[in-house]
């Protein structure tokens, strides 16, 4: 690579190739009855896939930010609780956590609620598998996002925080107006990467029989025995989602960097 090369200014030939290839594949799929049938069926799972990814990610961000602030707290107990949670969640495979939450944690919580109420006011089947899956992904990703938030908050120059304090800003105001906006610009790329990863990992909910793209692909292929065509369609849909999201996030990151340089 040339010493002064800027990858961000390269013409995106890779994107041109991907778009042309994608359009050609879409045309071929629509022209072939097997592909077209698989595309119609699997497309119905897009709403579930995106719903799981978006809801779980937003919840994970909220929990992760709270854990990051606990990890940076001046209280030892809070720091140790946050570290314990993060290490446990990062050490358990997501698919194992998914099964544990669905078939151990949720039934246990339901039993506890009923014991406290002294009556069977709730049944395990009242909690849909979809929301058990969302909870599991939320818990899993919150640990990784907590580390991202912590690194971003620690990277903010302490001098700026002290300057804000000297201006009379309280702790919440310093966090809201000084610390978090600067940290957010730093951690936006890894946050975006984790969101794309969440979209891909949402396919794990298929183990619970939830009708996302992956589950519909499995059921469709088992019914028509056209594994090649069906899983080609599934891969195509996931690539459209992940690459599309990556492009949107990259554009947003560039805009944030531009605002940062302008001081706005």
Describe the model:
- Helix 1 (13-31) crosses helix 2 (33-43).
- 80% of the residues lie in helices and 0% in strands.
- The protein is flat.
- The model has no long low-confidence stretch (mean pLDDT 89).
- It has 10 helices and no strands.
- 25% of the residues are buried.
- It has helices at 13-31, 33-43, 46-71, 76-91, 94-117, 129-155, 158-166, 171-201, 213-224, 227-262.
- The protein is an all-alpha fold.
Layout of strands and helices, then pairs:
Elements: H1 13-31, H2 33-43, H3 46-71, H4 76-91, H5 94-117, H6 129-155, H7 158-166, H8 171-201, H9 213-224, H10 227-262
How many helices in DSSP terms? 10
Helix percent reads over 70%
| Element pattern in H and E | HHHHHHHHHH
* SS-based class: mainly alpha
What general outline do the C-alpha atoms trace? Answer: flat
Radius of gyration (CA) equals 23 Å
Please give the largest β-sheet: none
How many distinct beta strands? 0
Multimeric organization: single chain
> Which consecutive residue ranges, at least 5 long each, have pLDDT under 50?
none
Mean pLDDT: 89
Strand content: under 5%
Straight-line N-to-C gap: 32 Å
